[in-house]
Amino acid sequence: MKDLLIDYSNNHEDISQPLIFWPSVMILLLSVVGIMWSLETPFAFSDVSPILNWGTLFLMVMTVYCFLISFVLAIGLIPFFISTIMLFLWLENLGYSIMYISIYGITFSLYGIYRGRRIQNNLRSVIEDLQMIIIAPILLLSKIYTKLGIHIFDPTNKRR
After folding, report:
1. Nearest alpha-carbon partner for 27 in 158, 157, 137, 151
2. pLDDT tens digits for 110-146?
3. 96 backbone dihedrals φ, ψ, rounded to 5°
4. Distances, alpha carbon 68 to alpha carbons 71, 94, 102, in Å
5. What is the C-alpha to C-alpha distance for residues 141 and 25, in angstroms, rounded to an integer?
6. Which secondary structure element, helix H or strand E, spans residue 147, and what is its range?
7. 19: Cβ–Cβ under 8 A, 6 or more apart, which residues?
8. What residues have CB less than 8 Å from 55, skipping those under 6 apart?
9. What pLDDT does residue 115 have?
10. Distance of alpha carbon 23 from its chain centroid, rounded?
């Protein structure tokens, strides 16, 4: 876990405008979940739960992944995941098209990711950020934990 966060963090040392870059990364994650939320789901999903769809399934898989790499970080991400589900349920009740909002969100976030970089201002770095979309919220939360003095890593425990 620590190596994964260090590698991801090292790839993001060239960020010149973090107030543009990091919100863009989070908007990208929300937009990807929104697009998955909008995809048609099998009837078996509605038998399990009325809110089960590809977006909530993605968030559940992401939660399990987070628990596998760090229990403390996974607990911290649960409110974000719940807020994401509540946001999309709210948008659905208002009658907004989550698919269109998500497409606009992806366009806006990719531009923000591109503009937020200092040196590697190219398509390759944006594609790498797309590939690491699951790691970004974990890295942000680990930085917040560090600033708050919450220790995530125990050097004696290799599993964390």
Report:
1. 137
2. 888 888 776 655 676 677 777 677 777 887 888 788 8
3. -75, 150
4. 7, 36, 28
5. 13
6. helix 135-148
7. none
8. 33, 34, 35, 36, 37, 38, 39, 88
9. 81
10. 10
> Helix/strand/coil (H, E, C) string of 55-119?
HHHHHHHHHHHHHHHCHHHHHHHHHHHHHHHHHHHHHHHHCCCHHHHHHHHHHHHHHHHHHHECC
Written as one letter, the residue type at 55 is G
Residue 87 token pair = 């946001």
Phi first, then psi, for residue 117 (nearest 5°) are -85, 150
Q: Measured between alpha carbons, how far is 160 from 156 in angstroms, rounded to an integer?
A: 9
Could you say which DSSP state residue 16 is in?
Answer: S
**E strand or H helix that includes residue 141:** helix 135-148
pLDDT at 110: 85
